[in-house]
Amino acid sequence: MNENVLLVEQTDQVLLLTLNRPKVMNSFNFAQLKALARQIETLRFNSDIRVVIITGAGEKAFCAGADLKERVSLSPIQVKEFIFTIRNLFTAIEQLNKPVIAAVNGIALGGGTELALACDIRIAAENASMGLTETRLAIIPGAGGTQRLPRLVGRGKAKELIFTGRRIGAAEALEIGMVNQVCPQNILLDECFKMAAMICETGPIAIEQAKYAINYGLETDLASGLAIESNAYWVTIPTKDRLEGLAAFREKRKPVYRGE
Questions:
Q1: What are the tens digits of pLDDT across the range 77-91?
Q2: Is 114 a catalytic residue?
């Protein structure tokens, strides 16, 4: 089977990853999970890429979750393998040392919403529909949804959405803080690339350390979080980029950061 399940396109310092199974609403099968995992693994040490954007092919869906046609053919052990694979993939995306933007271009259900939750920033098209609908199939979110959603929107709202399996539109997702921004679908990628361009103007090491401090600091008490922030700050002090930032400010020009 030669299906190209993941499209990869680099523009300057931004890598666009497109889930490419539009006939099945870009739902995840094993092949697509493994293709995405390979890309994420190689990105950690690729200094040419500053920002990653993940979206879905077509105009209908970002990702409708697991491919249920494949799922019914799997043994219980294979289902466990699938959940293990997707959970580890989304954790790798969350912990990637570069910002990841989800361009939610349509329906994002189950694992599709969980993928968006694992990204750092979520920009949704006006026609987007999101939801952790697993309880309607007598299962629960298994790729981080029970943990990431309450951290993003609060415990009560997360329980409501997970217990009911209710879908929400882009406007409600914005209102409760599930997404950062909503825009017309025809300019969704433009808005994502605009955000990515702003990030690319900043210091690469600073961004990596800021993401680290936020991700790990929020998982602990304030005093420990401040210690994590302090250690992350110390990493930036001896860098050439910090000196370049000061020089550029003094000389009234744009800084040129090299990640050094």
A1: 988 998 899 999 999
A2: yes
